[in-house]
Amino acid sequence: MSAELEPLSPQEAVDLYLEARDDAAENTLKGQYYRLHAFLAWCDEEGIANLNELSGRDLYAYRVWRREGGYSNEELKTVTLRGDLATLRAFLRFCAKIDAVPEELYDQVPLPRMNNGEDVSDSTLDPDRAVEIVDWLERYEYASRRHVIVLLLWHTGCRVGELRALDLGDVDLDGSRPRADGPAIHFVHRPETGTPLKNQENSERWNAISAHVAQVLDDYIQGKRKAVTDEHGRAPLITTRNGRVSVSACRDTLYRVTRPCWRGEECPHNRDPEECEATHYSKMSQCPSARSPHDVRSGRVTAHRLADEDRALVSDRMNASGDVLDKHYDRRSQRQKAEQRRNLFDL
Q1: How many CA atoms does the CB half-sphere of 164 hold within 13 Å?
Q2: Strand, helix or coil at 199?
Q3: 306 within a domain of the structure (yes/no)
Q4: Does 234 share its domain with 96?
Q5: Which residues touch 324 (CB under 8 Å, ≥6 apart)?
Q6: What is the CATH classification number for the domain harbouring 282?
Q7: Helices 145-156 and 211-222, interaxial angle, to 10°?
Q8: Which of 274, 295, 316 is the last residue of a domain?
């Protein structure tokens, strides 16, 4: 151990690191905090109270601990483990700058190698299934909060944080604003009042919506929407009794409605609904059929691409580059792509 190092506890170091990351988006910081919290739990288990004591052997032991389910209680996929360790590397690089660990220690964090495509999730919500769920909600829970959440995520393909950030004033239901030809919604970056967008100002955009979606929103606003403001005095579009809907509530909504048994369908996994844990609120995400808001977004991109819609327009609407759409969201099968090429070449 170098004599130049200054003692620093793991918790103090994490606090300093997060404070120094004032350039990062809120969601990025939340993800980093979660991953570093796993590191803090390991330090506590190992009795490491001073980062000066860390060695390359310790870092290897931490990798094995996380890979085999330490902190999360389940084995990590390679892509998840790599993200966890990449955050630890960045953290240790910062710790070296404040004389808490040796300068070269970060380089001893062993990152797992990934095969081509291994960093891409293959989970998605099939477009046909998405339409079935939206239709079911339209019939049985029309203009409810649940209906509006699923409808907007599917219709616009927006991120869940963008959905949550919408205010009443961001919705033009009759297309009456200047230079408007029809109804639309406006995604706005407002970090100072708790609703940052992923790409900050670059995520700001108007997305056109259909007349039908506008009517559903109007009926929700006039009917089941709770007329409340959030802690910043803003009027959210989607509300609960306590104010603006949370990201976790939106996510839970998707987990709930994408389970086939919730709509009375037979379980495709041969489970008895009376005994299945995934029927309980806190376990819904454990259903193999449950899908997240990100899966809705990838399903929406897939639907756009199956319809041969302009790639640049889809990129603008989804606020993601064409390369990102291709790599992380387009779930067309190779056979589907071949059939589309057949139509294009008139074979």
Answers
A1: 24
A2: coil
A3: no
A4: no
A5: none
A6: 1.10.443
A7: 150
A8: 295
Residue 38 located in a structural domain: yes
Q: Which amino acid is at 25?
A: A
**Together in a domain, 281 and 169:** yes
Assign 301 a pLDDT band (cuts: 50, 70, 90).
Answer: confident
Q: For strand 205-208 and strand 239-240, is the pairing parallel, antiparallel, or unpaired? A: unpaired
Q: Residues 160, 212: one domain?
A: yes
Q: How do residues 224-272 score in pLDDT, each as one tens digit? A: 999 999 999 999 999 999 999 998 899 899 999 999 999 888 888 888 8
**Do 69 and 63 touch, CB atoms closer than 8 A?**
no
Beta strands in 179-235 (DSSP E): 184-187, 205-208
Give domain status of residue 68, yes or no. yes
Specify the pairing of strand 243-244 against strand 205-208.
Answer: unpaired
- Residue 270: how many CA atoms within 13 Å on its side-chain side? 0
Closest CA to 60 of 111, 104, 133, 9: 111
Number of domains in the chain: 2
**How would residue 23 be classed by pLDDT, with cut points 50, 70 and 90?**
low
Rounded to whole angstroms, how far apart are CA atoms 107 and 96?
Answer: 11
> Quick check: 174 and 221 in contact, CB under 8 A?
no
Q: Is 322 within a domain?
A: no
Give the structural domain span for 41.
10-108
The burial class, CB within 10 Å (0-12 / 13-18 / 19+), for 185 is buried
Domain's final residue, options 76, 108, 140: 108
What span, in angstroms and rounded, lies between the C-alpha atoms of 205 and 168? Answer: 16
Q: What is 261-323 written as a DSSP string?
A: GGGTPPPTT---TTT-GGGSGGGGGGSTT---HHHHHHHHHHHHHHTT--HHHHHHHHTS-HH
- 176 token code pair: 């009456």
Q: Tell me the per-residue pLDDT of 119-160, one tens digit each, with 9 for 90 and over.
A: 444 578 888 889 999 999 999 999 999 999 999 999 999 989
* Percentage of residues of the chain with pLDDT beyond 70: 85
